Fold this sequence. Notes:
Jelly Rolls; Aminopeptidase; binds calcium ion; 2 domains; alpha+beta; TAT_signal; binds zinc ion; eight-stranded mixed beta sheet; binds D-tryptophan
Amino acid sequence: MNLSDRSSISAISAGRRRGTTAAAVxxxxxxxxxxxxxxxxxxxxxxxxxxATTAAVAAPDIPLANVKAHLNQLSSIAANNGGNRAxxxxxxxxxxxYVKGKLDAAGFTTSIQQxxxxxxxxxxxxxxxxxxxxxxxxxxxxxxxxxxxxxxxxDNGSGSAGILETALAVSRAQYKPAKxxxxxxxxxxxxxxxxxxYYVSNLPTAERSKISGYLNFDMIGSPNPGYFVYxxxxxxxxxxxxxxxxxxxxxxxxxEGDGRSDHAAFKNVxxxxxxxxxxxxxxxxxxxxxxxxxxxxxxxxxxYHSSCDSTANINDTALDRNSDAAAHAIxxxxxxxxxxxxxxxxxxxxxxxxPDNGTAVxxxxxxxxxxxxxxxxxxVGVDIVHTYRGDLVIDLVAPDGxxxxxxxxxxxxxxxxxxxxxxxxxxxxAANGAWKLKVQDIAAQDTGYINAFRLTF
Length: 457
Ligand code: DTR
Ligand code: CA
Ligand code: ZN
Ligand code: ZN
């Protein structure tokens, strides 16, 4: 686009920004920029940004070696403290001190909540990452205690180490999500979800309402693993399932029943919950072995609540995948509805030739990893190089096929090129999926091509 075109479009847009006047509407119509509805209308806006921003901020890979290093530390702690990390035993407090030390060094605001159970002092460790909307808290938790019979490396060193390394990744990235991040390591889960129940029961109602979701990670590295996703909050569930689908890993709904871990206390007060699980004493079926590998007819974790729940009782692939899935969910769910300045842009810059007076062509942008629907002000960047743009009819087609008319043809619009950004109310459309820009040249002689198609959420 040359400067004069851009200035003419931006002048029109500026007119619209100050409130649409009749003259502005006429000018928009003349420029073919006033969308008429095939579906909710689109409005013209300033010209296409010259450089697109990147897509949604993706979570970093969580290094398996780092997660396993935490497990080795927890194993040593058990070995040096009577062989376990159980509630009321020195190995549990030593575990709390280890995790707290890592988080304090990484810049988290930590606090220890004490409680008494079965005549012994218990401890919950709460860690807040400074920043984000304090009224929208994405909360990830895992119980840190083991049973008395062993070190509890899978149950639940795996979940504890997975979210610890995710928290440290937040610090390394200096991640600044729209929502506030909180992590917790619970005490006395094995005695009956005592620590998490104590936390929630002592959380004022106003504080509970600030938690937009609680994610639970209890046993995420079972040696004969299954890939189970809690079927509670649908958005959280979908976030996890989409991640595993991206890996080509099938998942199943976790069916061992509610109330079996620390998400129960949150669910019972109406907080959306979700989580991951790789299985305990139940037996893997032949069908499950077919899709996940491993051994059918054998428990997902033969050392569940046993002394053999050691560092040898871990499947590295499961631990790695679930740690990465935890990070993906935490990053995705905390991005919030208020996108960082500039928003998340998805683009297709492949040239698509537009047949003269011919059939419609499309350029596709695949959106994934987002939660919920598209915004009411979806920015649709169109960059078409074409003489006599009046020949062109342009639609945005949502993943479900709904068409939003961006531009009608106009026999009086002899200007060249369509290089502008339309605003479309796409709030009734799911955000994820294949979005298409559909362009048709309906008059003979002038020709051109789609140069770029961009969506900014
Ligand atoms: N209660 C957990 C293990 C456990 C058993 N079933 C589920 C289902 C979902 C999460 C965890 C579990 C424990 O022994 O710590
Ligand atoms: Ca990883
Ligand atoms: Zn257990
Ligand atoms: Zn557990």
